[in-house]
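[scheduler] slot 2 assigned
[scheduler] job type: sequence-to-structure, two independent chains
[scheduler] chain ordering preserved from manifest
[runner] begin chain α
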Amino acid sequence: MIAMDELLDRAQDTLSGRRVFGEPVHQDGVTVLPAAAVSGGGGGGGGQGEDGEEGQGGGFGMRAKPAGVYVIHDGHVQWQPAVDVNQLVGTLAFVAVVAFLTRWRTTAIRAKATVAAELLSDD
């Protein structure tokens, strides 16, 4: 079983700057440095059972997602963000549903108002 100190050392190594920036790529006078958004978390604990046995445990997880690249050319640095197509499609779908429901609700309210106005004008 892994000791808690070793688990924390591994977690610290995992979330280091080496995980955020990839290896630079050089070609035709241009350097591209990939970058990622990295997050992680962990936990651990220990205790003693009723029979006097002691135990400990822990765990750690991380997530890395492409953020974009730094493009270095002729001494100038430019940031090129990565595009998450799945998030973009999900956001557009959400906006479309909200627009549809708003339009539907507005039409229903106007129809009720028109009917009410006609009933009042008939009197």
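[runner] end chain α
[runner] begin chain β
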Amino acid sequence: MAIERTFTIIKPGALQRRLVGEIISRFETKGFRILGMKTMRIPREIAEEHYKEHIGKPFYESLLAYMTSDPAVVMVLERENAVDSLRKLAGATNPDSAEPGTIRGDFGIPWEMRASIYYRLWYLCYPVSYWWEIRSDRDEREA
């Protein structure tokens, strides 16, 4: 097999939950060599390009908001069969379907819990006055 390189992102939620060291340890234990690593807040333009295959899907805007909300760790990894090996190590996209022992299986947030996380994300993105105005408008219509 040939040596391959692949790109991965340790998402903002993993940084918030302090899982970066554990995730990097798993990469290294599985034989990945870290060629480059950077902690950064992903610019919206980069996130739009990276996730362009999801344009038009209902989750697209919330995905961009999440990926640009806080710093993430971007990495280039290398090893034999790197792309397939990383996919196997990461696990199924849906944490509820991901096998135990995979990154998503062990650390992924179940999809039913994401609604409350997205609510908090959007709530924190807007000033309290915005939410007050919405509530005030609704209260006036109900009166």
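[runner] end chain β
[qc] chain β: The chain has two domains: 3-109, 111-143.
[scheduler] slot 2 released
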